[in-house]
Amino acid sequence: MLRPAASAQIMFRFAREHGLTEAACLRGTDLQPDLLFDPDTEISTTQELAIIRNLVHGLRDQPFCGLDVGLRYRLSTYGIWGYALLSSSTFRSAARLAVRYLDLSYALARYRLESSGGNLRIVLDDSTIPEDLRQFLVERDFAAWAAAAWELRPGGFHTLEAQFRFPQPSYARRLEKLCGVKPVYGARRNAILLAARDLDAPLPQADPQMARMCEEQCRQLLARRRMRSGYAGRVRNRLLRSPATMPSIEELAEEMHMGSRTLRRHLRSEGVSYRGLVDEVRQTLAEELLSSTQMKLAEVAERLGYTEPSAFVAAFRRWKRMSPGEFRKNPDARPH
Hints:
The protein has helices at residues 6-17, 22-26, 33-36, 45-58, 65-70, 80-86, 91-100, 134-152, 172-179, 196-199, 208-226, 230-241, 249-255, 260-269, 274-292, 297-303, 309-320, 324-329; strands at 3-4, 42-43, 110-116, 119-125, 159-163, 190-194. By secondary structure, it is an alpha+beta fold.
């Protein structure tokens, strides 16, 4: 999915301030600084990851730079998504909205929410992030979340526990200050647990009418972004027409009067893959069918082209880190 270049601009500025040349910052992206800072420019995840990799590898002597970069993000950086959070009535409702429309943020870790006796656990799933960028992006996205929390409520929120998958770094005191507690390192997942006492208190800038308007704009914007253009859009639209009998890439390329290698090359240039588009279509339809219908699991699986329900369940767990049944029972996970 293409998205605005605001996040890449923040990282570019940071890298330049710390000695990287423009060429080093943008190596492998096919971008020039004037294009990067054009307000109409949208970039692919592939291009953004290239900029991040250039920063991480070029600033090896500053291993804590993920935290410094993340703290530069403000709610205004995210546009309407940020304003929607700012006008939310409580932090719990802001967190639900944030996850619902996460693709409008610049997070590359995937967030999910879990209830724990009234408390709220925020999980940062880094499983889809390239391994060499994983710690940087978890730290960046966590610091950006902390900065947003302070904007929502000056002083932040009471943290009960924090854990990270990576080993304890030399700058652990900085992470402890951000978390509000001493984190556990080498854990099985990245997560922070917030106390219930803060979650449902009114936020200082709560505005229900503005929140409703902003959420509607988020819904429309996300829908437009998912209406892909170019070859990715053509492929996605074709897959949506018959999700129960999706063609192979060879069959689809033949329909489009080109070879499969050519189609793969076009999709790669747009920052996507055929398999990724198939997953995107199936996940979107699965969430909608599970949320808005009472279809049995076998019926949903069949509608999406799976020969066995077990294959659908395995795919859904890979997408959402929960079973379809758990998804149906969890209002925080379901689309609204």
